[in-house]
């Protein structure tokens, strides 16, 4: 098997959106934050680049050579019983390091006769029993009328990419990838609370927006890599509660609401309670509501409204355009916080953007509009992002009023309500 030099410039098609977002986040951090955060994000971008490598593989012309279904280090060669053809066979175990993950494509033409998936266990890949008892796929390909060839991809490393050309399931070992993005979101949310306590309100707000970026990636990574799990869903909700529930409320309280006494902390609590109820309802209503719309304002958008206000006026004050500090805007902050908290538990329909297909072709004007949006954000990130999410936060009520005026039912009218325990 001829190996191509690493790293190869070809990137898997599924990886381009993640690579673009990672590089964009790193560039924004370079521009607005700098220091350690931009360094971490560039490391993430390099990791994403390495993870989605798609190096070509060329098989040997020698008919006696063995075609491996994956690149890696050979750790064992032994005789065994072929459970798929009921005959003795030679088993070659290939270990794939978790830091050398990439797409693996077997360059073999033929007809796929059978794909067997074995759920199995998740023992340490270094153990001998892992090759027989761990999760794995087996693909039987017929490349000639009288000859069939079995490719048994041993899942020695659970993050070993694609096992043959027709795998139906990806190994569960890559579950750590979406959880890595969830952890990054949680880290940004927690750090934003720390920066808010230190009265670095601009940095705290920016970290909440970075948490939003990472949160938007974890679910998509899980779906595109076939690694969704109940654990990931619960972990994501707990992370959202910190990053988009507790963090915005505490930052707003420190910035503007503290001087209002009980009215201030009550507003912050209403927001936190609204975020918790919103997340609980979302989890219990999975698969039961119209996927085109969110029922109530999503917690990331609510957080962007709250911290966007803080970031905008902090920037305006730093540029000497206004002389208003947080306490001077306590009433506005109180109204935004209460509005966001109550809207999260409302039944107003907010467009979810889940029906947008990233692989669908778009017109030139649509592509130009995306570039225009990036240009506007770069002019004044704080103000543009705040106005965008403020508009989104109002859009649900506007759409609900339009439906009522037209006499049309709500997207959620035909669904039974679920308790948010």
Protein described:
- This protein is mainly alpha-helical.
- It is built from eleven helices and seven strands.
- It has helices at residues 16-32, 35-51, 130-133, 176-197, 201-224, 230-257, 262-284, 299-318, 330-344, 364-379, 381-406, and strands at residues 73-82, 87-95, 111-118, 136-144, 147-153, 293-295, 349-351.
- The strands form three sheets. A three-stranded antiparallel sheet has the order 3-4-5, with no helix packed on it. It has a two-stranded antiparallel ribbon with strand order 1-2. The protein has a two-stranded antiparallel sheet with strand order 6-7.
- Mean pLDDT is 77; it is low at 1-9, 144-174 and 415-421.
Give a short synopsis of this structure.
The protein has 421 residues and is mainly α. It has eleven helices and seven strands. Helix content is 50%, strand content 12%.
